[in-house]
Design a protein that fits this description.
- The complex is a heterodimer of chains A (794) and B (308).
- Chain A is mainly β and 794 residues long.
- Chain A contains 8 helices and 52 strands.
- In chain A, β14 and β15 (297-303) form a beta hairpin.
- The longest helix of chain A is centred in the first third of the chain and has 18 residues, at 2-19.
- The radius of gyration of chain A is 44 Å and the shape is elongated.
- With 308 residues, chain B is mostly beta strands.
- Chain B contains no helices and 30 strands.
- In chain B, the strands form 7 sheets. In chain B, strands 2, 3, 4, 28, 29 and 30 form a 6-stranded antiparallel β-sheet that branches. Chain B has a 5-stranded antiparallel β-sheet with strand order 1-8-7-6-5, with no helix packed on it. In chain B, strands 9-10-11-12 form a 4-stranded antiparallel β-sheet, with no helix packed on it.
- The chains are: A mainly beta (794), B mainly beta (308).
- At the A-B interface, α3 and α4 of A face β20 and β25 of B.
Amino acid sequence: MKFITNILVLVFFIAINVNSQSLLGVKICVDPGHGGYDAANDRFIAATGFWESEGNWDKALHLKQMLIDLGAIVYMTRSGNTNSDDPGLSVRAAVANNNNVDIFHSIHSNGFQGTSNYSLMLFKGTDNAPANPASKLYGERVGPKIYAAHRTTALYNRGDMSFLGYNLGVLNPLNMQGVLSEGSFHDYIPESWRLLNTYYRKHEALAITRGLLLHLNGGTLQTGAIAGIVRDPSKTVTYYAFPGNDQKVPINNIKITIQPGDLVFNGDDKNNGFYLFNDLLPGQYKVIFEREGFFKDSSTVSVVANQTVFADKFINFDTTIAPIVDSYYPDPSIDSVKTSDVVKIKFSRPMNRATVESSFSMNPSTTGTFTWTSDNMSFTFKPDLPYQPKQIYTVTLTPLALSIWNVGLSENFSFSFSTKFRNRLNIENSYPGENSIEISTTVQIRLRFDAPIFQGSLAGNVKLVDDVGIQQTVTNVKVTAVEGKGFIYFEPRYPLNNNAIYTVILNGKITDTDSIPMVDTVSINFRTTTENYVFGNVIDNFETIGGWRNPNISENSAAIDTSISKFAITNEKKVTGSNSGRLIYQFTGSNGIAAVPNLTKPSIGSNTDSKVGLWVFGDLSMNILEYFFADAQNNTVAQFVDTISWTGWKIKYFPIGNILLTGEKFLTELSVKQTNIGSVSGTIYLDDFQNDILVNAKEDQVEIPNEFVLNQNYPNPFNPSTIIDWQIPSAGFVTLKIYDVLGNEVATLINDYKSAGKYTTEFNTSKFNLSSGIYFYSLTTQGKVYTKKLLLLK
Amino acid sequence: MKKCFIYIFLFGFVTVNLFGQSVRIGETIQLTNKSDGYFMSPKISPDGKIFFSSQGYKGIFYLEKETKRIININDELGAGYEFTFSPDGKNVIYRSDRYINGLKYSTLKEQNLTTKEVRILQEESRHMDVPQVLNDGKIVYGIDDRLQILASDRVSKVDITLLNEPVVKAVNNEIIIYNNGIRRTVQPQGERYYVWTSLSPDKTKLLFYAVGKGTFISDLNGKILVELGDIRSPQWSPNGNWISYMLDEDDGEIVLSSDIKIISHDGKISHQITSTDQIKEIYPVWNDSNLVYADSDGIIYITYLIFE
């Protein structure tokens, strides 16, 4: 009897031994490929946030633990996954060599254009002449295990020289058998999501362990595993996926229970739906799948030792459950919501759009449009108009909002949010201003808003039109933001007509960068200059630098940043020819002068009746423009020209007789002089300096509809008398005077206080000794001057 | 045996002043041709012969100086990894590896370079590390991390009290020093792997690479004397004044570039020995005052350095 007992004990012992598994005393070097988070060589997949270095490291940690549990001595080539712990390939091989390990395994995943997903084992050498035959043999044994675990499309066991055409850096120095495994493809997006799951990585580690046991004659694992992927059959992924199950959306946060044992696996939220139970004794198990909002489901599987049995599952929405609001926007915890913002609501199930929209309300009442996602689970409501500022809004959905299976919300759902103080984009200032006159025909239009402008909202919404609505093409459009304000600058592509009304139209669809619109369309009328100008004798056409120099060498310059304040010839703008002069200035104090000297000091002659001037493209800086002159004795004077209150080209001139010098005079400098209200920096352009400007006439002066009116005289031409009709909208002191072409006053028709109304005044030349020619009549009232031309023919 | 093609591709000398001593970088000669086969891991025998191995450390070869022929000594797997020589240069001592059920077994052998006769010094064992031959002819090696000392008669084993010079081994996460009959362990950079460990020619200093930290020189107590940076496969020059190394860079899968440099033993001066875009020079060893190395295509080179 004792003999039989001993036999039974021996048989039992042998049976255990045959089936047991061990790697006791085996030295294994595990190399987690790459290391850290260097985008240049750590293989990052932006679509999923996957780093190969991280995946390899996690697989290696799982593998290390499994191998240690089997009694192996494990050497890891790196100790973490940081940029500072990323040993070179020669160092990794040296770790294996120095520790005299039995086998080396470098863990990687692969990448190629996102459309492949096979498993690849690489050993050193060629397919038929491995540097170490044991390496190829190991690849033949571990490859199928990884291939089976990841269920990739194919398996290859290749020599690196044959497959790649070069030796892998980590295999080349190895003094033992070793492979580099590319378990699957991390740029195939479904696989990339799976590789983010630590249990998926663990499953690869389990597969490598099985391969090592096989190769090292370490027996087989006594336990098996259940793994699978849970998906929603009703939804299709939006990224590339092979035909088949990968095209269906995996379910996140799945709960899976197996019985017996009641072991629970909680799935992750990384869009892979993967689960794994390992270390299961062979036998039959029930796998129960649960996810809130889905019908509970189950499968029955038989676990086999040393293998993984797969139990993929499609689970379906529970159509009987009342939908709930999963998430919504705006978040009530946000202090204040942009008045241009939208409402977003996401449901737990697909919804009947019509019932949701009819059950949706906002208080205060708000109209808008709904935009749904294709799965009918979420919508965006965009109000037609911005919300009222500083207002609490309440959004409500009633139980009449139904799922596509006609199950309504279980109760009213509502939330509130408050809005910010702004609900309009406002224009604060413009040049030209509304109803302004004498605007350059090359005006740079400047618009200032109370918030930075969203440039994308401008297309088709900013127009410059003439008085019959014809749109003018514009150029040099600039959209900027400074200190919280928005600016738009632009210019007509071609000079506008003289003495014509134009309108800048700003459509209410223009928005700021917070998407808050103007709402109301704004129109700005202005009239272009009435000045008629005939070129005189051009002294300097600014085509070349000539005698002009930078402000830093002028003794008159003061308080300027000389590194910025420069004069140059440029083709950016011009009146005639190809170029003009450009003065960029930057004041550093409060009394700055940026003076541009002309070392050649061109003569302007000595004719006191002659007018001297030049074209100036203003910068609206409100600084002062001055010309400096000298006489033959080098006495100099600074001649005030104008306050730079315009943009675009304007000719700025005056009679030479105004210059307080005698004899022949010479231009020595041009300057911009800082004023108290002036900008500290700016840019003006200068062109065609000239004297003997022959004509300086004004005609058809301003008429602004519905305000002051000065009508054209009739008859015209006339002799000896003509009628002038005019009107004023409010009472005030009025003068109506006649001037000759030289600007001399020749007659005063009215010089009196007048009440608002229409008036008719006769101009009878018989009272005055006038010769034939062009004259101007000018109405002055309340600080405004209106001028028109008349022609006397005797 | 194959006739070797020899190419000289750098003439002229570059002179560098180091330690008050001029170093002239002389010509570089290609010792083997790609058509001869893939060779790696060169070693220099005490009498100056240039040895190397083939891919996977399979076999040992040497270049016959007179005939420029490549002579095959043996074809044994693993023999080419860290083989060494008897002090008289007549024998090569190496391990021969075999895989049984996936497990690596090694036999320690000595082969006469003239007769090619092979003598087994240690029967097939698991976990046998690389042999070192001491000045007095003793051979030390490890089995299962236990030091084995084979007396100069190649038959009897002795214990560490009979070592006439220090011996150093890097095992697991520490460096073991056998000296004056005592076994001591040091971790100069804490618990981490130590590789490419060696003693200076005068046996007073330790050169090692601490994984994650770089290469250092310490005294025999592990006290750091010099930090040399992330230099790979460092090797003492025969006079101990210099250390050769390779400067290899990779992208995690392939070696992108590699060149050979030398650095003074105080770490203050380094000099580029090779600077080639297309050739990746790796694993240099000293041949007297010259450097022998392989490239990633399996070609062996020598670069002459003249110290004046």
